[in-house]
Amino acid sequence: xxxxxxxxxxxxxxxxxxxxxxxxxxxxxxxxxxxxxxxxxxxxxxxxxxxxxxxxxxxxxxxxxxxxxxxxxxxxxxxxxxxxxxxxxxxxxxxxxxxxxxxxxxxxxxxxxxxxxxxxxxxxxxxxxxxxxxxxxxxxxxxxxxxxxxxxxxxxxxxxxxxxxxxxxxxxxxxxxxxxxxxxxxxxx
Length: 189
Prior knowledge:
By secondary structure, the chain is mostly helical. Helices cover 66% and strands 0% of the residues. The chain has two domains: 83 residues, RNA polymerase sigma factor, region 2, helix turn helix motif (Rna Polymerase Sigma Factor, Chain: A); 78 residues, Orthogonal Bundle (Arc Repressor Mutant, subunit A), CATH 1.10.10.
C-alpha cells in the first residue's frame, strides 16, 4: 500500500496503527536527518549520534500506539530524542581532565579540543562566523540555547516549543526574546 505525499503525520500514524507497516518508513525518512542533527548536538560524535537516532526510532516504534494524534508528532518525536540523549549522557562516565596530563603537567586533551559548533554549522557557510557564533551561544544559559536551537535549527514554532518543554507559550516567547538580547550583549563585548 503506497502512502500519499499529501498525508500529514497524524494520518500516516493512523495508517500504521491500522496495520500498514510501510507507513512507518515514511515517518522515518521524513525525520531521520532532523533526529540525527538533534542527537549530534548532544554528543558531537557521528557514531554516537547514529546510535542515539536509532534508539529514538526504536522507542517511537514501541510507543507509537500511545501517541495522541491530536498532538504534534515532531514535538513528540524530539521529546523522545531528547530523553534518549539525556539517558545516554547520564550513563556515560565522566573522565577527569587530570588523567590526560603528561609528566610535565601539560594536558594534551585540553590542548587539542576543537570548538564545538554543531548548532550553527549548517546555518552559516563561513567557518569563522560559525566558530565565533558557537562561542557566543556557549555563553548563554542552557535554556536560552535550547529555545534558540529549537526555533532556528529545528524550525519549531513557539507553540511546538511550548509543547515540547511543557511550558506556557508566553514563557517560551519571553525566554526567546531574552536569549536574543543576551546574545546581542555577548556579541557586542
